[in-house]
Amino acid sequence: MPDSPAVPTRSRARRVLVVVAIVLASVLISAVAVRAGFWQLGRHEARASAIALFEENAHLAPVAASEAASDGSLADDEWRQITATGTFDTASLTLLRNRPIDRERVYQLLVWLDTDDGRSLLVNLGYLPVPGPTEDLAAPVLPDGAVTVTAVARAFEADDGRRDSGATRIVPTQVPAPAGDPYDAYAVLREACADDGCVDHYGAGPVPLPELSLGPHLAYTWQWFAFAVIAPVGGVLLARREWTLSGDGAPGDAAPRVRRVPRRRSGPSDEEIEDAL
């Protein structure tokens, strides 16, 4: 049987190119994993800071907004209950869209409170269910006179740049301009007291505060960092295997076939003896 032709090995330049490509790909994957790990670590640290701030401020006694912002910033007192007295700028009432509550489609209500200290505080008054196609929105009736609100201070959200009807983020740039210098945080209403009594919201219900938890970000961080270590190790092993298999004498090359030589018989067979007789 004729020998099978040997499979030609790769040239040295091509072998080097393939190995370098494998190593670079593994390094790139490792770099992406490291970046993703640090991003998850940043999310974890941000949540941990928010929880620490909540635990520090949420159980403090209410403080006047002007007193809490005496150092120039109300955002440092996030999650603390604040009080303020003033009048609602009813013309600034704005619907906050795309914020469901308990999976119900609702509009949250934002309005400026022009406080007695000459500044304006953006207040989240509560929420209203989104009306059906044949229904009208039942806008709340706000008091015309002075009102004293007790609310939870919250930091403004990042502006997403949208300027549609209503607002999609709680930020001053998405509501009408206030009459006074705005505080650098908004407030989630917990109680509003006017001459005719006190309410805890204007609308169908008060807006609940978010539930804070660390989430799985720290676990994801370690997973990404572990992957960042595994990727280059795997790349080196794969490159080494590729270099070995594509070289001279590699298992991938066809080895010369060994021709089998028929075994020589030690003597005549029985048939040959019978024929001879």
TrEMBL record:
Q: Which PROSITE patterns match?
A: SURF1 (PS50895)
Give the bilayer topology. Answer: Multi-pass membrane protein
Judging by the UniProt lineage, the source's domain of life is Bacteria
Pfam families referenced in this protein's UniProt entry, alphabetically: SURF1
> Bias category Basic residues: which stretches?
257-266
Which CDD domains does the UniProt record give? SURF1
Annotated GO CC locations: plasma membrane
Q: Indicate the secretion signal residues.
A: none
Per UniProt, which keywords does this protein have?
Cell membrane, Membrane, Transmembrane, Transmembrane helix
Q: Which InterPro entries match?
A: Surf1/Shy1, Surf1/Surf4
Coiled-coil region list: none
Principal location listed in the UniProt entry: membrane
Q: Where does the record place it?
A: Cell membrane; Membrane
- Chain residue ranges for the region called Disordered: 248-277
- Family membership, please give it: Belongs to the SURF1 family.
Q: What is this protein called?
A: SURF1-like protein
Name the source organism: Demequina lignilytica
